[in-house]
């Protein structure tokens, strides 16, 4: 029987270490308004980063705005993948497949090179609002893909599920590569539409067009758009997390059999995790297709799946804010070192090597990721935990004589240990 | 019975759960007391009935909020209709046979669990106790035979549906969700009675708020009931072993079961913890639950159960009151193997 001495505060007994923990405990000490204040300022700073273009931080070899846009898209993916891997505990190695489906939905519906849609009247899928009209469709179709993949495969667990999903990712890519009549094959689909907003004389296609080379260029506009989507998705996922759904996911991750026996409809919630993860991945793919205006199968290789997973693992599985940091590391660091040459080789070319090493180091020193998940799974958690903490502290401060005060278990243990 | 919380989810700043003795929480509970079935025992009677209980650190004596079993029953299960008809069969096991390949782990076992009793299921190691448990709770599909609960056969029901019908269990090896806090563990149990799903949680419907309040209130009440409310915010994995066992019981009770199945709840306990647990199990029964108990510890089984079913090599060899079972030569030969005056 350990930890039975009621005078030792348990928070002190559990050692806290590492930068992530330090940041978290600092964050937890702040009041609610202070947290909002810090959050808004940090968010504004993050959003304005590519506009300010600070010399040391800015990327040299690639456009900083475009890099940040890519970061925001990978952040979306990481949040979606975090629902599947981090919360529900379903190892999905083919997540890039959902990303591809989302991108291809937009491309097939709006690209003039699309063999299917070029011959029919486009209706709402042409003109300035075409891209926006495609977004809900991309999310829904990707979600349906999630159902199609999940219904048969979620009956297997663990490693088997990982292998099946790995196959799914490859299947999607190979279909895109080989179904020339539908996807135009390896040639890809050019001229994908994008939102035409803020058109002017020098920017005939609006601020989201690649022709926008102002100080606030198209990359930054896409970054802001994707960042807005990140916030919306975070609110959505946060609502799910602090509810019956989030609790069921974590319970499934921790012990699926126990969860089912305690009344959690495990298959239903695993499928929901898959569908929600897929939908978010599809959303990210749709943003990608609009930004690059070109979709081809090479962008959706398995190694990208691994990179996305890497973002989740580095950031901290189950922590939706942590995985955004993971996404930043995955996207930004290779872009930052891209221009730096060592022995005639750009450092950016070594990114898979670095991430491999980083993962090995992480597994040794901090297997839970930089920002490990903390359980906050109850809607009224903040108030309840504050109240419960007070009771707990009071009980520990003043345990009272055995059999008179404190809870019976503590009393019973004290008899034995003393 | 009406729910004791207003349905408006945005009611400002009303504390969701309050520590015992701080007022409004207890007041709200008091509403429905008279509707509960009358408590069968006073504390004195309890002590008289079982001399062992005198050594129990009685939770009731410690926390006045727990003094009234009716009150606790009301808090932990506001929607539960407590059936007063004690004695009729709640669960009927008929010719239950479970075979793994050629091995019959359980053959033609029949017994009833009556409403409001504590039934002990005992037997030597490998007798098929846990197999029987698993067949009842749907973990194994029986090869032959039926299990009916409340008059309905359970065969083919999914495991989580069996739980919703009213059978909850704990595990021989503690199987909590370690990364979740104690309160969250119990809340998942309460969720078995909830209906909010993805849409409700996303759009924060009134039902979502209502059910979250219910989860927290009943969750905290149950943690108080089993005596670990002070550790509600700790991760389940960090709790001491005894508290983990108690948390498992609270989590099972949170599903509002009619039948609570405890699989060796005292495994690894020292004698003082065991007697505390005995008190808890009796209290659970007094609150209107029916309990099925697997246990090795004879002292605990004899002290707490109303009837006992004895298994050996997958067959039922005896059934009856603790005294009858204790005096049964077959049981003594098969299992106890010691003179009966040394048993209790």
Automatic annotation (TrEMBL), chain A:
It is found in: Cell membrane. It is a multi-pass membrane protein. Residues 392-418 are annotated as: Disordered. Coiled coil: none annotated. It holds the Pfam family BPD_transp_2. Keywords: Cell membrane, Membrane, Transmembrane, Transmembrane helix. The keyword Phosphoprotein does not apply. The keyword Cell membrane applies. The chain crosses the membrane at residues 34-52, 64-84, 96-117, 129-148, 160-176, 221-240, 271-291, 297-314, 321-340, 352-373. InterPro entries: ABC_transp_permease, LivM-like. This is Branched-chain amino acid ABC transporter permease. It comes from Gordonia pseudamarae. The lineage of its organism: Bacteria, Bacillati, Actinomycetota, Actinomycetes, Mycobacteriales.
